[in-house]
Design a protein that fits this description.
This protein is 51% helix and 22% strand. By secondary structure, it is of the alpha+beta class. The chain has three domains: 23-130, Endonuclease I-creI, CATH 3.10.28.20; 133-211, no CATH class; 215-318, 2-Layer Sandwich (Double Stranded RNA Binding Domain). Strands 4, 5, 6, 7, 8 and 9 form a six-stranded mixed beta sheet that branches. Strands 1-3-2 form a three-stranded antiparallel beta sheet. Helix 8 links the parallel strand 4 and strand 5. The longest helix has 29 residues, at 130-158. The radius of gyration is 29 Å and the shape is flat. The protein starts with a helix and ends with a helix. The relative contact order is 0.08.
């Protein structure tokens, strides 16, 4: 009995010794990095580099929750290095573990702690100071607001024609997507975002109103393509008008159907141009590739795919006008 008690006591001392070696930040990072000032996350792996990468990835997840709730993605940007050489080097080393979108919001993040347990596991702590991040996100939101306002003003007052106005509004809509992401990131670090003067709903309404003012004449090199083009024009709310000053010209090139390993493949491309009084304002080409196990189905699939994609192609074309 005495031997059992002695063994238990020894085991207890060993466990206590092991637990005493564990740094406080591993379980309670808030004690050293208070949440009022920092966002923090721990990463665990078999080696230091992977642990660092996972700590950064876990830190990014704090922002990703907000993004997923709104079904939107982070805007892409490049992570800038921190002034601290070691932190910057660690972040660059582990960047392959973190998505491009996550690296944007983690600008200024630092890997501040690491620890290797006796069993070989390595732990890392990544932190992001809230105040600088808040200033960065707030500045980004304010800058986006100015860009959106400039484009809306240009569309309503300065654009030389309706198509140019539409293109400016589409630029504003894309900038607002980026602004929404920045504003959600701002909410994460500060608890409150900035109300938008032009939100997605209002910009989409302006876009729809701009589309219905357009009148296009459409010319395609085949009856099928003509039908798809006219259908796309109607889907966007544009008026089909044979006397319109704007002319859409569409053509389609396809290769002979090929049989490879029991599949029939049809490849080609669709090209469209927007012409105004003899001048080409925009021109785009989109690849086409479809397959089917039945040769008689492959051409039908090509027609179906073209009809499905044509409104998107048309919108991309007319909003690319400079």
């Amino acid at each position: 009995m005495k031997k059992q008690i002695t063994a238990i006591l020894v085991l207890g001392f060993v466990l206590a010794a092991c637990s005493s070696n564990q740094p406080d930040w591993l379980d309670t990072p808030a004690e050293q990095y208070p949440p009022q000032r920092y966002l923090s996350a721990v990463g665990e792996a078999d080696d230091r580099s992977t642990a660092d990468g996972r700590a950064l990835a876990n830190l990014a997840k704090i922002f990703e929750v907000a993004i997923k709730d709104h079904s939107l993605d982070f805007s892409q940007a490049r992570m800038s290095s921190d002034q601290s050489g070691s932190a910057a080097n660690n972040i660059q080393t582990t960047s392959r573990y973190v998505t491009t979108e996550a690296r944007q919001v983690l600008e200024g993040a630092q890997l501040v702690e690491s620890w290797q347990a006796e069993e070989g596991k390595t732990y890392a702590l990544a932190v992001l100071e809230k105040a600088p991040a808040e200033r960065r996100f707030r500045g980004g939101v304010r800058s986006a607001d100015r860009q959106i306002e400039d484009r809306v003003k240009y569309a309503s007052q300065q654009a030389p024609n309706p198509v140019a106005a539409l293109a400016a509004l589409e630029q504003a809509r894309k900038i607002e997507n980026q602004r929404s992401n920045l504003n959600r990131n701002l909410s994460v670090v500060s608890g409150k975002g900035i109300k938008a003067h032009h939100d997605q709903a209002s910009l989409e309404k302006l876009l729809r109103n701009a589309l219905v003012t357009l009148h296009f004449h459409a010319v395609a090199d085949s009856p099928q393509l003509q039908q798809s083009l006219e259908s796309a024009i109607g889907a966007l709310g544009i008026t089909l008008d044979k006397d319109a000053r704007y002319q859409l010209i569409a053509s389609m090139d396809t290769e002979p159907v090929q049989n490879k390993q029991g599949w029939y493949w049809l490849r080609g491309s669709t090209e469209m141009s927007l012409i105004y009084q003899g001048e080409a304002l925009a021109k785009k080409r989109w690849p086409l590739k479809v397959s089917a196990t039945d040769e008689g189905m492959v051409e039908q699939r090509a027609k179906d795919k073209l009809s499905e994609q044509m409104p998107t192609y048309l919108y991309e074309l007319i909003t690319s006008v400079q």
